[in-house]
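INTERNAL TRANSFER SHEET
From: sequence group
To: structure group
Subject: DUF1985 domain-containing protein

Please process the attached sequence and return the structure record in the designated field. Keep the field labels unchanged so the import script can parse them.
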Amino acid sequence: MTDVQLGLFRETCFGKLLDFQDLKLQPQLVHCLLLREISHSIPKEIWFDVSGFGLRFSIAEFAVVTGLKCSGEFDTSTIPSSDSNSLIKKYFNSCSKVTREDIETCFLGQKADCDEDTVKIGILYVLGLFFFTSSKDKVISETYLAIVDSGLWDSYDWGKDLFDVTLQNLKGRLFGADDSESDYFFYRILGFPLALQVWFYECCGYCDGVFACRSVSTIPRMLSWHSSIAHTFKKLNMELLSLSASQVFVLLLFSLLLFCFYYDFIPFNLFSFYVFYLSVEAAQC
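Return from structure group:
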């Protein structure tokens, strides 16, 4: 992208991603957490047992980590029909269905007709190859193509869709599995598991300098961290098991703070802070 195109991209709801640092996905950390998943009755959350504490990951935490819009209702009647999609006609006319690979090829190898089209294809690239991870032959939703082509990307609640896909691929994935290193098996997590990883980094101060390094403090939180090292299952598993109660308490406190941020609530004291948290929990049960 040229400087002009980067400037246009920065003005979109995805613009902050230009500040994303080198942060490597740690599949073994996600695996360690999934081995500690505990059963509960709330469908839109996933809970983990770390050192005897129940830790929750919900759309509230997901919103703060990713910075994506996770609330509101998008008016689908404003989406134009696929027949009027100029991006498809210009750049994907030969494709019966537009896949992630098609988007990647177009973005990296084909020069768009104008700066606006380059930005639109860049947004599709971010959606298809960064957030909604999948195999390269995965078809891009016609709805998403239409939203981007029509310039409605800032209004759409991408975070709700992405959280649902991510949670569906995380929840219950390893119930009953053994954490023994001898039990190797392969599975793929679609969606955006990096959000779960960053959430754990943010919650547990012990992670800073051990699993990754925090260089800034900003929202979305995934811009705060960097790490280019893939840690082994043995190291991660031992570190998680050895977390002290005080280290995990920081995690619980962070979860409460995220609740206040997500629901735009400022407590007058710690008691009202806790009562608000419990009231929201009760309302969701």
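Handover comment: The chain has a mean pLDDT of 81. The chain has two domains: 10-70+161-284, 73-156.
Transfer complete.
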